[in-house]
Structure formats: C-alpha cells, structure tokens
User: Fold this.
Amino acid sequence: MQAIRRSGSSAAEKTAMDTAYAAVTEYPGREVNVIAGAGTYFINRDDMFPNGARRLWKGTLPTRMFNEIALRFDGTNEDEVRDWFQATHGLEPIQPSRRFFNGLLSESEAATISSGLNTVDMEYFDDAIDQPDGLEILYRSGETRLIQPGSWLVNCSGYLLRTDTEYEPYISTYGTTLSINTRSVTIGFSSFASYFLTHLLFLGKLDETPLYELDGEDLARKSRETLIWTALTLGQYNLSLIFDAVPNKVFLNCGLNFDRWYPIPRRMLETLRFMRTHHNDREHHRQTLGAVRERFDVRCGPL
Assistant:
C-alpha cells in the first residue's frame, strides 16, 4: 500500500513542512520523500518569537524585521536581500531554497525534517503511475522517481498564485465597495489589509488616501522571488500612509500586530521608532516600488 500526502503552497509551504515533520516523527522507519519545487525557506521562530522571560531582551520584533527588509530592498537586488535574510533570520530545512512567503519554523523542527528525509527532489509534480515495483512519479522536467510501497510522499511544489483572475481594484469607482484580492494588493497580509482598509472605508478615507496597489499575480508570473520583498515594501509604504490617515487607536487596538508577543516596553520603543522614521522611509519605499513597476511592467502605483 502506498501512502501519498500532498500539501503545501507556493507561499510558506508550512503545511507541507508540518506534514513532513509528522511523517518523520510519528512513523519512524518509513521512508519519507519530498518534492520541493524551488525550495522554501522560513523565518526562524526561535529568533522572532522567543519564549518566556527571553522576550524581555531577545528576539527581533516582526515590525522591525519587515521594515529592515523594505529598507534593504531597492527593487533590483532580490538575490542580495535573500542571501542576507537567510543568513540573518532564516532557516532552510531543504537546501538550496529560493522562495519565501513569511512561514515560521523552529530550529528543532528544521533539524528533524532535514535529518529524517530519504529523498528530496527539486522538481514539480506532474503525474503518478502505478508500476509493479512501486509508484512512478513523473516530474514536469521529464525526470522520474520510483517510490517504494508503504512510504510517504510530501508534495511541497505549491498551488498559490497560479490562476489568472480578473482585475478588480481594491476600491470601487464610487468608493462604496472594498475588495481584498491578489490583483490589487495593498498590504501583503490579507488579514491586515481587511482590518486597515475597512477602517479607511468607514472613515470615508479609502478613496482619498493614495495607497499603492500591486498586481500580485502578474508579478508572481514574472518574478516570484521579487514578489515577497515587493509585497513587504508595499505594506510598509501603505501603512505609513494609513498611519497618517486614521486615529491612533486604530493601530493601538490592532490585535493582529505580531509585536504583541513582546512586552509593552519593547513594543513602545518600536512604535516610537516607526513614528520618528516612517515619513523619511516612505520615499525610499516609493522609489523601490517604482523600480519594480518599470523593471517588470506591472501595475504598482496609486489607483
């Protein structure tokens, strides 16, 4: 009997890593095989979200990390930013990995997965054919692999942003309808976009705040490795505009804020830093987004 488990996404592939981790730890002795696509690296959870009292002095606050990424990215240097991020904040359970979409993984999880896999193919799944001596996997490249009966196969090669949906602006012509979608992205995290853009809508400021929108699907087709850094820069730029447009309590009451893992004094220092620098940083982000727009000929600017 062959057991095949397909999971993962072209975003974090965290579900796929969770599946691989469960297969390695809960079924010792069974072969675990991974189809990794371009490979995905992750944020080091031990660094970003330390446990217990260590939160008082250790760890990188998420907002600080996102802002540092946006300031390093200039619209042309995605390889340089990737190398810096992997060395500073990242984990690679599968090497080499070229994709990143904000997934979290602990050092122990990464080590367990890396040491427990039997095979890793940097390929994309195409088909599977039963053969007398096992399951033959056909890859998009034309290569094949025979999987032994009774083993696990985890497909991490993804499915997100592979469709071609119709363009819909995040705000309708008459300013009455808000749309959170991948063709008119304003903040890369849809939860954050829903929270902040809804506040702008009810305040009557959504159609007058000059937010940038990004065609995420188009950029994904042209350069997936550029997409994540562009989305993080876009978020920093638009959050700066929103901060000037809404009451302070909108930000203070945002339960989505990843920094809430940390004690209030550290969060307050990070908030003060943002208030002091976000206007100056905004011009850098605007130039970066303009460079992406010109380089890839994608929709990336105000409506």
The radius of gyration is 21 Å. The mean pLDDT is 90.
